[in-house]
Amino acid sequence: MLNHLTSSWSSVLSAEFEKSYFKELISNVENEYNSKICYPPKKLIFEAFNRCSFDDLKVVIIGQDPYHGNGEANGLCFSVSDDVKIPPSLRNIFKEINSDLNSDFHPTSGNLNFWASQGILLLNSTLSVRENLAGSHQKLGWETFTDAVIKKISDDKKNIIFLLWGNFAIKKGNKIDVSNHFILKSGHPSPLSANQGKWFGNKHFSKTNLYLKSINKELISWFNLQ
């Protein structure tokens, strides 16, 4: 399974791969894929890392589970494969971008590979899931691994922007050294949270670019997903 992970992250995380919990995790995930229908496709489990190298990393967005419907998950949090209907949370993300940036762009695809290519790590806490069974691969060990990833980024990098949306992501962000990084928090973009006034108006997208500008890094183009 790790043969699908690029060398950029393989070297950074090599010590983690040798730990007993991780070896057990991979064994359990292999068994799940061999006996159940699971998502994303096995070759895309580490796609968030492959699409955003450690050296180019500028922004981290933390999600929870991959989508568990057929053909939806593509290894990036909040992102779906091409030709899949844009999920409600992602629609709310696009609405906030339009409002924040005074734009009127309406993507026809929810594939966020274009974000990843600009240095955004779209990291789910759990990297796999059984079909139609949300949370089914929690407690296998993925959370321990992704906590280690976040801590590694926090320890080895500086001036990374962390976008923490919802209580789950905020708690996950406890591993981040706030003195070395820029952290933005808000409610989750899901309809329930957004309709309670916890998402819209957070202006995380313009704030991200303002911070990038302040440290002389290239800004993120939030639209242009085609």
Structure report:
This protein is α/β, with parallel strands linked by helices and 226 residues long. It is built from ten helices and six strands. It has a four-stranded parallel beta sheet. A two-stranded antiparallel ribbon has the order 1-4. The mean pLDDT is 94.
Estimate the helix proportion, in percent. Answer: 25-40%
- Could you say which overall geometry the principal axes of the C-alpha atoms support? globular
Could you state the order of secondary-structure elements as H and E? Answer: HHHEHEHHEEHEHEHH
Strand-pairing-aware structural class: alpha/beta
Number of strands: 6
Low-confidence spans: pLDDT under 50, at least 5 residues? none
Give the DSSP E fraction (strand runs of 2 or more residues). Answer: 5-15%
Cα-based radius of gyration, to the nearest Å: 17 Å
Physical arrangement of strands within the biggest beta sheet: 3-2-5-6
**Number of helical elements:** 10
Which whole number gives the mean pLDDT? 94
The span between the termini is 29 Å
Give the biggest beta sheet.
Answer: 4 strands, parallel
Topology:
Layout: H1 7-12, H2 14-17, H3 20-35, E1 38-39, H4 47-51, E2 59-63, H5 88-101, H6 113-116, E3 120-124, E4 129-130, H7 142-156, E5 161-165, H8 167-172, E6 182-186, H9 191-195, H10 204-214
Parallel strand pairs: 2-3, 2-5, 5-6
Antiparallel strand pairs: 1-4
